[in-house]
Write a structure and sequence with these properties.
alpha/beta; Rossmann fold; 4 helices; globular; binds adenosine-5'-diphosphate; binds magnesium ion
Length: 170
């Protein structure tokens, strides 16, 4: 299945995509964000946080690898957002030191990971992969794909496609 691709015209649009994704997330889900510095990974995470009812401000967790935020589902249950940024990870051997494994299968929330490439091949079994690429000025190409290409994330993408039906996708 080809990735679902959007062109976001500004940061608010990228946040809206994040918020729409968040509505479909369940505890245990992992979202990996690919893209260079300034591509919009933290901006998209802000949208996910907003959609999960997180009140705290979302910034890149610069000095820590993980920031935990408490949010709420639409039905009022508590759900945590684990925002990871592995940019400053020294090496894969450091993944153990902050308990990377627990964020691969987060029991009480969802994990959103910037720079997952730093974790090498130590990735969750199932995840949603969002790629952000600058497409000139404030434009960003945002593509969403499922791994593996047959799990629950495929359904999530189908739902996301429906949520954006009528909105122009690229
Ligand atoms: P990253 O986490 O990938 O390094 P950030 O989200 O921190 O990137 O920064 C993206 C920057 O680009 C922000 O200053 C944001 O306001 C700006 N920006 C401009 N247009 C967009 C867009 N369409 N989507 C996301 N960010 C955008
Ligand atoms: Mg960032």
């Amino acid at each position: 299945m080809p990735p679902l691709t959007f062109v976001a015209g500004n940061a608010g649009h990228t946040r809206a995509i994040g918020a729409e994704i968040s509505r479909l997330l369940r505890p245990g889900d992992v979202v990996l964000l690919h893209g260079d510095l300034g591509a919009g990974k933290t901006t998209l995470t802000q949208g996910i946080a907003q959609g999960l009812g997180v009140r705290e401000q979302i910034q890149s967790p610069t000095f820590t690898l993980v920031a935990e935020h408490e949010g709420q589902t639409a039905t009022g249950e508590s759900i945590n957002l684990y925002h990871l940024d592995l940019y400053r990870l020294a090496g894969e051997e450091d993944l153990d030191s902050f308990g990377w494994e627990q964020y691969l299968a987060p029991v009480e929330g969802v994990s959103v990971v910037e720079w997952p490439e730093r974790a090498g091949s130590w990735l969750p079994e199932e995840y949603l992969l969002v790629r952000l690429e600058p497409a000139g000025a404030d434009l960003r190409r945002v593509s969403v794909e499922a791994a593996p290409p047959n799990g629950r994330m495929i359904e999530l993408i189908a739902d996301l496609r429906d949520a954006f039906a009528g909105v122009t996708t690229a």
